Amino acid sequence: MGKNKKKKVVPFRINVLFFCVFILFSTMILRIGVIQIVYGEDYTNEVERTEQVNVSTSVPRGKVYDRNYNAVVDNQPLNAITYTRSNSTTQEERLEVAKKLAEIIEMDTSKITERDMKDYWIITRPELAEKKLTEEDLKKNDEQKKEDNWLYELQLQRITEEDLRDISEQELKVLAIKREMDSGYALTPQIIKNVDVTVKEFAYVSEHLDTLPGVDITTDWKRNYVFDSTLRTLLGNISSSNEGIPRERLDYYLSRDYNRTDRVGKSYLEYEYEEVLQGQKEKVRNITDKAGNLIETETISEGKSGKDLVLTVDMELQREVEKIIEEELINAKKKSGTGLLDRAFVVMMDPRNGEVLSMAGRQFVKNDEGKTELQDFALGAMTTSYTMGSAVKGATVLTGYETGVIKPGSVLLDEPLYIKDSQPKKSYQTMGKIDDLTALQRSSNVYMFKTAIKIGNGKYEPNGPLPIETKAFTTMRNYFSQFGLGVKTGIDLPNEATGFTGQDFTPGLLLDLAIGQYDTYTPLQLAQYVSTIANDGYRMRPQIVKEIREPSPKEGLGTVVKAVDAEVLNRLDMDQSQVERVQEGFRRVMQEQRGTAYSYFRGAEYNPAGKTGTAQSFYDGPIKDKFLAPTYNLTLVGYAPHDNPEIAFSVVVPWAYDRAKNQHPINNLIGKRIMDKYFELKAGQNEEKALNEQKEVINGTE
């Protein structure tokens, strides 16, 4: 009996459960039916009514500071008038807005092309444009099913100069405005005017935005290079708002969420650090109806200015170095008696970490008015190369040590070498028996010649031929490359030159290679070479950027995102004692009598070391009718203090003179003055730092 009762209860519960499920399904079906039947059309219309389009807008680029946090490149704010067109805006509507704007603002018309004028003429004179087509044209178009724009092209071809003269000055303003409006992309703000927007124009447009659909006012920016021409060629350029992304880089940048009209770095520092400086764009979502009319705009993410760069360069030192180069160039130009001298370069870097404190170059150039003026050519320190002469003899001596053909203290006879079928090869004076230190101190060519002959397993016999193994060229170049000579230095800038490597293996040219008169090197390579010697054989990668920082518009400098670490590229494959031997030879050049730079650097409290250079060369500059004229390059490398180097430098003056009687010591004069200035500025900075620390202590005790 109990079992039967239990069996009856279970089916009852199941029935209740089924009933509940039935009620739920019925409710859901009823709801779906109401949505589809009653509100379905409304929802369908809403979906068809709206589309969402995401748009990115540009933000100011990051700033650039020098190592002392002085602004080098920043952004100057500009009042700007923009236009944003919808997908449904017609030509006629844009023309009407342009006419209204032309009554309010002045507009530059110089960029208008003939094609622009013809298009405008057709739009504004449709009846006259129709008369440019004949019945035969229309019939031919229908019968032959010509392309859609065939008739339009015929109209363009038949518009005469007289037709275009009918366009008034006021219409040209309208055209200039409409031209900018048409060049933008749908739903993306396009700058109509951002240069010389007057307060009156800005205010008037602001007051009449309700009658100017699509027009808005905003704050734009332009790049401001604070120090005018100082370091200008290395800082590079950015594209204008009219240029946008250069065509050759378009696909690359579009794949990285850029807009076609974005301003981007086109050269050197601005180009190399583009993705750091560009910043994070503001992203907005434009909601439009099916016809393309804008309904509303909502911000997806806020924009953020580009990150800031802190350079290794000391702009105070940079400006002083450029001033010194200018003064010495002008002075030497007057005294050298050659019209070929037109440029000089200086590179100063910390040999311990590769930080470039100054990279300067000045060049005489004819301006647009035909007058000669000195312009910035810092770029040439890494993109042009020259024979450097005896300045590279330190590399030759060290190569001799490492190959075992000479050793520290080796004595060779400095004497003229008479090689069959060639001019005598000799030093500037016959020195007799000398060791390696004297060879560096007094700059013996013959000591280097004989070292190179030994490297090539050659044997010198007066008036006889000079057989040398051609692999000696490779051997010497391989060792030279350890110093950075003939290879890229690795600096964080694009388009660095490596120099010229001669392909003629005539034995006499190996001797020229040993004294820096065959292959060519850049002033930057020469600075890296002497830095490697100063730094006990460690070759450091030169760096122009010290830090990357977050932007901080209110405080000026944000937090450090990345500090660029010093990088050792290689260590000389040579004993430390051998490097120290060359260091001693360089010290004698500047600190002991008979050193080739002693008369200029004697008594210098900063205890310098270095090496002078003079190279016979051939002119290959801008004066075409002087091409390959024989001339001389002057160079100087050095560092200080000799026992604990903190600064290394190279001075390169190509085509300094063309005859011995006109020789001018511009390399030594520049070298001495830049080193004096470096230590003078350092003393001043240390004094200022001490005063500031003293003030902080005083303020802390009050």
UniProtKB/TrEMBL annotation:
EC class name: hydrolase
Which compartment or compartments is the protein found in?
A: Cell membrane; Membrane
What the entry lists under SUPFAM superfamilies is as follows:
beta-lactamase/transpeptidase-like, Penicillin binding protein dimerisation domain
Q: Please state what the protein is called.
A: serine-type D-Ala-D-Ala carboxypeptidase
InterPro entries per record: Beta-lactam/transpept, Beta-lactam/transpept-like, PBP_dimer, PBP_dimer_sf, PCN-bd_Tpept
Name all Penicillin-binding protein transpeptidase domain ranges.
Answer: 345-675
Q: Transmembrane stretches, by residue range?
A: 12-39
Q: Keywords assigned by UniProt?
A: Cell membrane, Cell shape, Cell wall biogenesis/degradation, Membrane, Peptidoglycan synthesis, Transmembrane, Transmembrane helix
Q: Which residues form the Penicillin-binding protein dimerisation domain?
A: 58-297
Q: Which superkingdom heads the taxonomic lineage of this protein's source?
A: Bacteria
Catalyzed reactions per annotation:
Preferential cleavage: (Ac)2-L-Lys-D-Ala-|-D-Ala. Also transpeptidation of peptidyl-alanyl moieties that are N-acyl substituents of D-alanine
| Protein species of origin | Metabacillus herbersteinensis
E.C. no = 3.4.16.4
Membrane association type: Single-pass membrane protein
What sections of the sequence does the record tag as coiled-coil?
none
Regarding protein family, the annotation reads: Belongs to the transpeptidase family.
Q: In which pathway does it act?
A: Cell wall biogenesis; peptidoglycan biosynthesis
